[in-house]
Amino acid sequence: MGLLVKKNNSKDSKAAIRIVDGRINGRSKYSVKILTQEEVEKERVQVYQYAL
Amino acid sequence: VQGYAFRKVSKVFYRQKEGFDICHTSYVFTAKNSHQYIVNVERHPYDVYAVKYYYQGHKQSKYKFNLLTNQGDARRIIFTCINIARVILDENPLASFAFVGAPTRPELKQKRISNTKRYRVYLKFALTFFAPINYSHALIEEKSACLLLNKKKLEKNQLLLVNVIDMFESLYNFDELYRD
User: Fold this and answer.
1) Among B11, B51, B132, B172, fewest CB within 10 Å belongs to which?
2) CB pairs under 8 A between A and B
3) How far is residue A40's CA from residue A18's CA, in Å, rounded to a whole number?
4) pLDDT per position in chain B (180 positions), as tens?
């Protein structure tokens, strides 16, 4: 998965947090998947009026 | 959302675990067939709330989060928890949420803790009621866990995901969570 977020005020792409093989910066213990807006919309039930 | 009426029951109390202050609040509601449910809300640092519920009749069981009541009432019970989340969000507009879909007893016996039945159901509700415009959905499928990160909070703290994952890795050992 690609670029997730960058550190505050950093323009240095090396400072970016990346998800490597599902692991944040390749180091977190568990594999994390961030859903894209399209993936969420695809799975949502159409009752948006109650959404938080 | 058609949930049950609920009320706050306990005094708010704080507990410290692994250096993190966790604030506990409890709610109660009565569902179908006069079944009472307890909802424990734990506020963690970074404004992350974990909402946990169980049937009061299972209170003494160490499997209270794993047992099913088979009343066919899950939808309204989950709606009630979402309404509690709504109250939390009114109190704290920066609130993020976390949940784990605890394995059922048969899943526990099969040592299946990834992509559990509860996780699949809760996730459907989470994706429906926590709009992608306001929340970022981070899934840890192998542990049936989900983080719903508030995008307003993410704007203030772009390292929120890393901070929260680090915190939960310090607080909970998922590998030991369901071990007898």
Assistant:
1) B11
2) 83
3) 21
4) 589 999 999 777 888 887 888 999 999 999 999 999 999 999 999 999 999 999 999 999 999 999 999 998 999 999 999 999 999 999 999 999 999 999 999 998 898 889 999 999 999 999 999 999 999 999 999 889 999 999 999 999 988 998 998 898 888 877 666 666
Give chain B positions within 8 Å (CB) of A44: 127-128
d(CA B62, CA B47): 28
Query: What's the ipTM?
Result: 0.80
CB B37 within 8 A of CB B53: yes
- B91 with B112: CB under 8 angstroms? no
With CA atoms as reference, report the closest residue to A3 among B158, B94, B118, B39.
Answer: B158
How far apart CA B167 and CA B109 sit, in angstroms, is: 29
DSSP A47: -
